[in-house]
Amino acid sequence: MSLWSNLISGIRAVLGGLFTPSCSIPWQPNALAPIYFGYRDYHVRFQPTLEETLSRTAAGLSEELPSTPTRVFFPSRDPGIDSVPSEAAILPYCGHYPLIVFAHGECDTDVDQYKKWYVIPSLLARCGYVVAVPDLVRTGGGADPDSGGGDLDLLHDLIGWMRTSWEYADTLMPPPATGLAAHSHGCGLIAHLASMFPNEITAWAGLSGVSEEGYMPIAQYGFPKLFIWGSGNAEAAQTTFNPFPPSLGWDSIAAPKHSVVLRGVDHFDYIPPGHSTCGTVRGDCPLTPVMAAELLMMFFGRYLRPENAPDLRGPIPSSLMPPKFASLHLTNLQVFYAGDFLTGFENLNTDSSCGARMAWDIGGGDNGTITVP
Q: To 5 degrees, how large is the angle CA 26–CA 27–CA 30?
């Protein structure tokens, strides 16, 4: 190569470096150093299979399948126009983000039940995750979670759509950087999905699953699992409460595994009061939505790290007890973006109606239980 060619190549390399987009904040958002969040609503259409196409054609229907409403949460540096998250832009060039798919449960009296789930996916998005929450019409209407009534295929198709056709697909980490989370009947749904594609899943979390037998498909697999339950009103709290049926005891589930029983928590308390028609009967603890979100943040923060994020297995203990905000030693800029962060467990001592019993076994002799406060 001539001297002139070398000079041109050198200039191009310098200019390319000057104009390469870079992250607008000096850290990768993670479970202990958050950012703002935004979201977008989509009507997702999946590519029909040949069988679906033939079936719909024979029935005189359009070959195109109906769309699936889906809300997608993501990290953002700005709070949106007039602080409206739906107007916020995704945070680009700050490493790639893991994908978490959240499956709601049954509530046939709610309209757009998938939109009721806001606190948990928004806080996860602040921690560097892209969270897709689809409208599961069949599951929401009471379909057997062991079969899903078609929602099982929908969830798997959604994961494929997010990685290939979503407008920000290039911001996602490649498989198997995928987490599954769910509530109620949705837990059985994602348990079967994880058992069908165990090599495509990194971590699994369930909130008050009602189909205990539906958990059996994932008992044998070694990906991390988190089971969260509520023990009912504070007066009925039981620190020895065992949520697993005899056919699926704690010892039969492969590590790493975590179980948390929240005191004063009823079935729909993960959604703030007044936001769901199925949440009229509530437990005594007012901190439940944030506490549950913090547990998922700590869980995924340990096992499903965003690209370039620090290893949090030190600062996040095996119990998943969130650290105190003051102990994080954030920079002034990080504190500015953190805002009202990690306020659930931190306020346990000021509200005696709340509490938690946490159990874990992550292998290698690291196991135990604690009760807080």
A: 160
Give the separation between CA 199 and CA 243, rounded to whole angstroms.
Answer: 27
Distance CA 362, CA 365 (A): 8
Cα 11 from chain centre? 45
Element at 334 (helix H, strand E): helix 332-338
Residue 102 CA to residue 128 CA, distance in Å, equals 15
Cα–Cα distance, 38 to 86 (Å, whole number):
6
Separation between Cα atoms, residue 56 and residue 48, nearest integer Å: 10
Sign of torsion over alpha carbons 301, 202, 306, 364:
positive
CA atoms within 13 A on the CB side of 312: 27
CB 48 within 8 A of CB 351: no
Q: Are 182 and 207 in contact (CB under 8 A)?
A: yes
- From the centroid of its chain, how far is CA 224? 13
Domains of the chain: 29-372 (3.40.50.1820)
For the stretch 199-257, pLDDT in tens is 999 999 999 986 555 677 888 999 999 999 888 754 444 444 456 666 677 888 999 99
Q: What's the pTM?
A: 0.89
